[in-house]
User: Fold this.
Amino acid sequence: MTSFKAPKGTYDLIPPRSADYLAVREALSAPLRRAGYGYTETPGFEQVELFARGVGESTDIVTKEMYTLTTKGGDELALRPEGTASVLRAALEASLHKSGNLPVKLWYSGSYYRYERPQKGRYRHFSQVGAEAIGAEDPSLDAELVILAHDAYRSLGLRDFRILLNSLGDKECRPVYRAALQEFLRRLDLDEDTRRRVEINPLRVLDDKRESVQRQLTDVPMMRDHLCEACKSYHEQVRELLTSAGVSYEDDPRLVRGLDYYTRTTFEFVHDGLGSQSAVGGGGRYDGLSEMIGGPALPSVGWALGVDRTVLALRAEGIELELPAATDVFAVPIGDEARRALFRVVTELRRDGVAADFAYGGKGMKNAMKSADRSGARFALLAGERDLAQGVAQLKDLHSGEQTAVPLDRVVAEVAGKLR
Ligand code: HAM
Assistant:
């Protein structure tokens, strides 16, 4: 035993549970790959300034939650707290937007870091699958992303999730709303911190969970009532496209998100079995972000789905994923000669695409059979001196107990046939 532990707010993925995470990442990204999104990977850290400008100077993510460091060369870096700013930075740096083929559609999967107060579903190191469609303003693109996330969750068998939908307006109507909201909020009885928030980021006040604040917000002005004609019509089209795709959603006029870059369409996927950390995914349109980080105007939309919380949602619904067997055949040699012969067969099986493992470490027959059982293999492949003298191995079906002698050079074909 070591006295070292995974750092606070983090946890290790180890077998057999780790297989669920791989399967979830696969399921969340499969619909994207079928919809023309290309795989993208960016560094785990970026310049602090990218997130400060992109995610927003006044957000919790930037003010409280970033892991920052100064390199020996004097660069100010931050472990990435989210993927959108990095992926857009990468697309701009590679001039993908100049290809004449807009939108640029990218997907990604990786680890993100936020110095948050850890609790169930909220970690300091977590994993997301994300998608960004860069450089097009088209309600079908917003709808496409919501539909793809919806279908991804459904493909895992999840049912108890809801989609919350809102529009946050654009650079025409949002400032007018912001002013109206501030005027309303300044008249309320709020503590000093919240009063400061009213001046810097008034929309976040809508999201305040405290009853003392919520009680005063009954007549608060809503973005919905301040949307300009263009935003209203855009939002209506997104809603119609979702409805005609059979995707139900709830209009949530109070939905604001923890990142400053959103404009127009915003949405969150919440799961009702998760308690307070119920958002399994979220996203929206960010038409101004490219300019905020020094690029040209590139209206864009995207989302990120939390892998950790999706796994928790599966557990909450009692869903067991059907995973392919980790091992199909487990070889148990008796004696040195059998060891060499079966090791050769195991190598051939693997080369032929059959998942095979071997009783390493010279264990006795009884222990080796225990390992075979534990591996979950369908077949054990046994051989001793007498078998080798006849050029065969014993293929034992661990489900039925049935055992047959198979010529060593026929094992691969025989196993492949039976597994099919
Ligand atoms: P976000 O809402 O901050 O959005 O994160 C997306 C998802 O990541 C959340 O719904 C949640 O499932 C998961 N998540 C976030 N923080 C944690 C945490 N501390 N522990 C566990 N899971 C967490 C974004 O990150 C945006 N970049 C999404 C986006 C993409 N918007 C446009 N494009």
The chain has two domains: 17-173+227-316, 329-419. Residues 82-84, 114, 116, 121-123, 126, 128, 130, 132, 258-259, 279-284, 286, 302-304, 306, 308-309 surround histidyl-adenosine monophosphate (CB under 6 Å). The longest helix spans residues 139-155.
